[in-house]
Specification:
574 residues, alpha/beta, ten-stranded mixed sheet, two-stranded antiparallel ribbon, 19 helices, acyltransferase, hydrolase, hydrolase activity, transferase
């Protein structure tokens, strides 16, 4: 096979990609990235003594041979005892009947060849990562399970319902087109404040950016050091209070803590010009001052998650000494300080993609939360996109209720200034970890001066914040006294990990003088949730003294929890 043939092959792969009618959220700029990747791969193959050339030839030859044998076997009627697929998309017995085993196996061979060829292109690291990623997305998009006429489960259901399933699916698709996103749960089953975010409390402070919620204590006495939670800005805070059985807030109250949480306002006309300085001063610092004043506390334990953790790190790095003296401890769940390896998200982070998105934002001054949700969905396109497309549109079924998926779809807009600073200065340039590389509140940012006791919690299955990258933060801060690694994912390992009936486990207490894997080998494993272990760390770090539980301030101007900002409807275009 010569270079001209390989060039034609790359062009065919790109054409197949572009021909797909539902392209799983890929933007024109991402299609261009894929085209550029295949073009560069073809050029690499044409280079003298190209190292990847031999791998490509072997991969292509193997694919041709396996496909030829498959079709010859099919023509000779040797499909009777075909092996079932290990792919969940083809788990139904219908895929092993009639012509569908041949179709399914042909696709599996072709998609494997496409991905293998992409993986062996031999491009520079970031270009290789992008080509491999988009090749996988392309292969998943082209699955026969995603089309009516090539999915035997869909055809069978259509026959059984007299076509009603297809009609219902078309209606579902029209409804989603009107909404602008794929429905992933029965949204009529949930209402925030009624069966989500129901822990009693009150808004005790409000400004144009945040509401501060104080939860009603459930024990006669509480720890003298209240807990203030700093949630992410891109999702609503109530993941910490999703329901009675999963609520971290309710658990903390039951264990005798006084709990406050920030509810970020969905970026709209009032806040779309805000930047990181505003989120630090009017967000984190204002909430700290209000919490200390209302709780009459000398110290606060700060708990943050995801980009809320990065925001808290930046705030602590530039916080006035008097205010930092309020901090008894700071805990960071699935949070990044070092962005050298931000996980699978890295495929979206480079200058051309950043520039293309900034141009798309235009004059709106707001980054729609829906855009970020789509990008995250692309990281697991079969589970997060195509599974719902097949179920909702091709089979005409409605997804079952899921409180986590409801919360996940309840996105928040971000000010364009905030978003651009986060992506360009931290994700792309990785400047947060470099002393003095960033300036906030008119000061050089030096996280090495964050001398408060810190705890980092990471999750083994986190695809957004790899645990090894979280671990690297323990080398960059002077007073990290605890690192915990829990099983589970970005949400399920950290925030949703109630000790009641937990099937998780966690590692802690290892030797942090060496690299991540060495720590992991030396750490002690404990079955169950990490939450009780963390509460023990809080007691040892900032004190276990108790006092009488305070009541919520009686102020008719304030709303009951979950407050008003979490319910505000702001258009996704700002």
């Amino acid at each position: 096979m010569d270079q001209d043939v390989m060039k034609k092959l790359s062009e065919m792969m790109l054409a197949a990609t572009r021909s797909h009618p539902l392209f799983a959220g890929m933007e024109p700029s991402q299609l261009s990235d894929l085209a550029d990747g295949w073009a560069k791969a073809a050029q690499a193959m044409a280079a003298p003594n190209a190292e990847a050339w031999g791998e490509w030839v072997r991969t292509w030859s193997s694919y041709q041979s396996e496909m030829t044998n498959l079709w010859l076997s099919g023509l000779q009627g040797k499909q009777a005892h075909v092996e079932p697929s290990r792919d969940r998309r083809f788990g139904d017995e219908a895929w092993n009947e009639g012509i569908f085993p041949l179709m399914r196996q042909s696709y599996e061979l072709a998609s494997k060849a496409m991905v293998d060829l992409a993986d062996k292109a031999g491009l520079p690291a970031h270009e290789q990562r992008k080509l491999s990623f988009y090749a996988r997305v392309t292969a998943d998009n082209l699955s026969p399970s995603n089309f009516v006429m090539t999915n035997p489960e869909v055809l069978k259901l259509a026959r059984e319902t007299g076509g009603k399933s297809l009609v219902d699916g078309f209606r579902n698709m029209l409804a989603d087109l009107e909404k602008g996103y794929i429905t992933t749960t029965d949204e009529t089953a949930f209402r925030v404040g009624e069966n989500l975010a129901t822990t009693p409390g009150a808004v005790v402070y409000r400004n144009e950016l945040i509401e501060l919620i104080q939860y009603t204590p459930v024990t006669p006495k509480v720890r003298a050091v209240p807990i203030l939670i700093v949630p992410p800005c891109v999702n609503k805070f109530y993941i910490f209070d999703i329901n009675e059985k999963k609520s971290m807030i309710r658990y903390l109250l039951e264990k005798g803590n006084s709990v406050f949480i920030i509810s970020w306002r969905n970026a709209g006309p009032e806040t779309r010009d805000y930047d990181w300085n505003d989120y630090i001063t009017r967000g984190v610092m204002s909430a700290m001052d209000a919490t200390a004043d209302i709780a009459k506390a000398e110290k606060l334990d700060l708990l943050s998650w995801c980009n809320g953790g990065t925001l808290l790190l930046a705030a602590l790095a530039v916080m006035p000494t008097a205010q930092k003296s309020l901090v008894g401890s700071a805990t960071f769940l699935s949070s990044l300080l070092d962005f050298s390896d931000p996980g699978e998200v890295k495929v979206f982070i480079d200058q051309p993609q950043i520039a293309a998105y900034k141009q798309r934002l235009g004059a709106a001054k707001v980054a729609p939360g829906r855009d970020i949700a789509r990008a995250m969905a692309m990281l697991h396109v079969n589970e997060s996109i195509w599974g719902f497309v097949v179920n909702n549109y091709l089979k005409g079924q409605n997804p079952p209720p899921s409180d986590i998926l409801y919360w996940n779809a309840d996105t928040s807009n971000l000010p364009a200034k905030w978003y651009s600073f986060f992506v360009e200065e931290m994700y792309h340039a990785n400047r947060l970890k470099e002393p003095g590389a960033l300036t906030l509140l008119g000061q050089p940012v030096d996280c090495g001066k964050i001398d408060v006791p810190c705890c980092f919690v990471a999750a083994t299955g986190d695809h957004i914040v790899p645990w090894t990258t979280s671990y690297s933060s323990t080398k960059l801060l002077p007073n990290v006294t605890e690192f915990v690694l829990t099983s589970g994912g970005h949400v399920s390992g950290t925030v949703i990990n109630h000790p009641a009936g937990s099937r998780r486990h966690f590692l802690a207490g290892g030797d942090r003088s060496g690299p991540a894997e060495a720590w992991r080998a030396s750490a002690e494993r404990t079955e169950g949730s990490w939450w009780p272990h963390w509460l023990g760390w809080l007691d040892r770090t900032s004190g276990a003294d108790e006092r009488s539980a305070p009541g919520n301030p009686k102020d008719p101007e304030r709303a009951a929890a979950p407050g008003a900002y979490v319910l505000e409807e702001v258009p996704q275009d700002g």
